[in-house]
Write a structure and sequence with these properties.
- By secondary structure, the chain is α+β, with helices and mostly antiparallel strands.
- The protein folds into 2 domains: about 110 residues, OB fold (Dihydrolipoamide Acetyltransferase, E2P) (Beta Barrel); about 80 residues, no CATH class.
- The chain has a 5-stranded mixed barrel.
- It is elongated, with a radius of gyration of 20 Å.
- The two termini are about 30 Å apart.
């Protein structure tokens, strides 16, 4: 049975902020860091000007709007516990993704970083905006589940049925690594069982199995 009453790190920190007005015992990014660092390797403290776009990730801590000569610009502050950066997002891109840009939520962006001759610092301009679900769909190669002889197909179906991919919400291939005392096999589920790998699915699966038995492979 899923341990539905167990607080995740995010839940604990959210309760702290609700009660105290700030996070006391940790940083929201820490709950995502192990996974995110598999496809976003640059920490914000190490972000620097370079010729090609780079992937960055952090928790949204602030947003503000400013009218510029080139039109409305939205500035989003990202923080990954190593540092923070202000990311410029042009209004058209912002309007496409505004539902993803929420305070205390994880954001993954592709950005061009250049020197800002006016301020002497950096100018970080987003050209793509992803939330974690979108990043998982783009970068994950498969979701792998490890099952033993105590698991059955009916239980598995009940866990994953609500998270099947749709045309509007594409998903990730699923592989089952089945192990018993006398046999082992690896099975990839049919394409119609591609799954939306969101947090609720992972919480349910890890409650039913355990953390080590639920793995997103980024290859």
């Amino acid at each position: 049975m899923a341990r539905r009453h167990a607080f995740t790190e995010r839940q604990r920190l959210t309760e702290e902020k609700s009660a105290l007005g700030f996070f006391l015992s940790g940083h929201l990014f820490h709950g995502y860091a192990e996974e995110v660092r598999r496809f976003v390797t640059t920490r914000l403290v190490n972000a620097a000007p370079q010729p090609s776009p780079i992937m960055l990730a952090g928790i949204v801590t602030d947003t503000r709007v400013q009218n510029t000569r080139r039109g409305k610009m939205v500035f989003v502050t990202l923080d990954d516990a190593t540092g923070s950066v202000d990311v410029s997002i042009y209004n058209e891109l912002y309007e496409q993704h505004r539902a993803k840009i929420r305070e205390d939520e994880l954001l993954v962006i592709s950005a061009k970083i250049s020197r800002d001759d006016y301020s002497g610092g950096m100018r970080v301009v987003a050209d793509r905006v992803l939330d974690l679900a979108s990043a998982r769909h783009e970068f994950a190669r498969r979701l792998r589940l490890k099952l033993n002889g105590n698991a059955c197909g009916k239980q598995l179906r009940a866990q994953i049925q609500p998270f099947k991919a749709t045309a509007d919400q594409p998903g990730c291939p699923v592989e089952i690594e089945y192990l018993t005392a006398g046999a082992a096999c690896l099975v990839r589920l049919a394409p119609e069982w591609r799954l939306r790998v969101d947090d609720d699915l992972l919480v349910n699966l890890r409650g039913w199995l355990d953390n080590a038995s639920v793995e997103i492979d980024y290859g």
